[in-house]
Amino acid sequence: MNEVNFNEIEAMQQKQHEEIQKDIIQKQNIGVIGIPHTGLFHWQTMMALLSIRMPQNTIVKYHFVGSCLVYDAREKIIEFAMNENADWIFFLDSDMVPPHDTLVKLVDLNVPISTGMAFKRTPPFQPCFYTKVSVDKEFKPKLESPIEFPDKGIIECQGFGMACALIRREVFEKVKKPYFFPFPNIGEDLSFCLRARQAGFKMYCDLSIDCGHVSSMPIQKDHFKEAYKQYKQNNTGTPLFVEG
Prior knowledge:
Elements: H1 6-27, E1 29-37, H2 43-51, E2 58-66, H3 70-83, E3 88-92, E4 96-97, H4 102-109, E5 113-117, E6 129-130, E7 132-135, E8 141-144, E9 154-157, E10 159-160, E11 164-168, H5 169-174, H6 188-198, E12 203-210, E13 212-214, E14 218-219, H7 221-234, E15 242-243
Parallel strand pairs: 1-2, 1-3, 5-12
Antiparallel strand pairs: 3-11, 4-13, 5-11, 6-10, 7-8, 8-15, 9-12, 13-14
């Protein structure tokens, strides 16, 4: 009667386990949460990161890049993400407070470029997402923010700040480097949006994602709506939020 060789059985089981784990990893998506910063990181942003829901079947990696040049930090985040074979990159600024379901919603939206809502920190707290973006010959931008919009739904944008934005790998495979180097008179975020639009990509905002922008308190949609309500009571004529 042959004796059982437990060493051979354990080796076979270990090999099977490794093959299963390898297969699982190959089927998983990879995402990168990239956070550019200048050395400061608000505690409310960290608390939001700790509670943010992760997409299923996805390996999520964090990459924090400190630099006095925001566009340089974003370029380094993209370089890291591409080297990690990431399927998407989620940019979050170090003073933003995203809802816990932000990342899941943007991933499930399944478009090349998407964002949640963000608002400026000072009155009248206008939106940082724009339905129209145009640039004249001298590179002076004209930006139009939506004044009235529903509480839910998806709208197409022509540009937005990168405070809370998800961009898929295919975009960086088509848009030429440098992705974020700012054009004259334009920030790195809108400069990227112009390049992406020129490459044929559309971008969208999920109106159900209301990201707080940390000031003395997190600035959100309700602050903007109250400012707009007060404006309508005291003004007529020209729409409120046309920049440029």
